[in-house]
């Protein structure tokens, strides 16, 4: 009789491993380590967390000496089921307004009054964030730099940036995200207004974008390897929220980026509240095409426009001088539109951005962005 009981238990245990939906589904995996007193995980599964606020360090890719990059993750999980929302900043390490936005959202969430969950991630591009740089730096064979926002969903056996992306996708995002907001700014030496890239072919992506009180929105078919496009390709609505200038905290951008995130959480019934300012109330300019005016030579640049200015085709927007003060190049807008971005560094090499214009192209092929 004892043998029968043991056999029965073994069979039941084996079945529990095989049956879908059993208690043995993918779970949050704790390594047993702590970093700055915060538990380290190698896999996140929001479904097995109790309601409440949680903090983790995700064990990311190895460095050349075998140490690890650790990514701070915050989770606010409500008592009731609902949407699983990702808020992320630091995909490019010099783009920092989003860091404070994500922190502020997480500070305001009360799990007792929430449905679903919100995940806040700071700096999946650990290499870039530590260097305050757009890129991931690889040291092997003399070194190279990689745009971490062009390698998703990554490769398990790829270079460090690709492997980090694969780990984030397969061990953090997968199964834990129903919609995503990826916060950026312009890169060092350039400036944006509050601007959204959104794939308008996805109805929820359009909704999320227009819940932000943005200055400008671009209908955009996406960029291969980017965080936003990879989510869209996997059936998860996502936007890229560009929140101003790099390397600094801009309080206006942080406040508006926060308002947009809260609007999204209210709209999708994660939290209760009243929708604030949106694209509609802000009279956001929505375009579908971009033209970039780039330096044709090296020189000291003077830019005559600022983000948000209306420009006409043929209008002079910038010039360059040599070291003696002689004008060596003049630049004009190619088409009518709104100034989307400007180069803020005076010294500009050939191909450096001077002015970027968001346009409304009437061509049928540009209906959803071109």
Class by alpha and beta content: alpha/beta
Proportion of residues in extended strands? 25-35%
Low-confidence stretches: 1-25
User: Average pLDDT, to the nearest integer?
Assistant: 94
- Give the beta-strand count: 22
Helix amount: 10-25%
CA(first)-CA(last) distance: 73 Å
List the secondary-structure elements in sequence, H or E.
HEEEEEHEHEEHEEEHEHEHHEEEEEEEEE
Q: What spatial order of strands do you see in the largest sheet?
A: 1-2-3-4-6-5-9-13-11-12-14
Question: With helices defined by DSSP (H or I, 4 residues minimum), what is the helix count?
Answer: 8
**Radius of gyration of CA atoms, rounded to a whole number:** 23 Å
* Overall 3D shape: globular
Main β-sheet: number of strands, strand sense, barrel status?
Answer: 11 strands, mixed
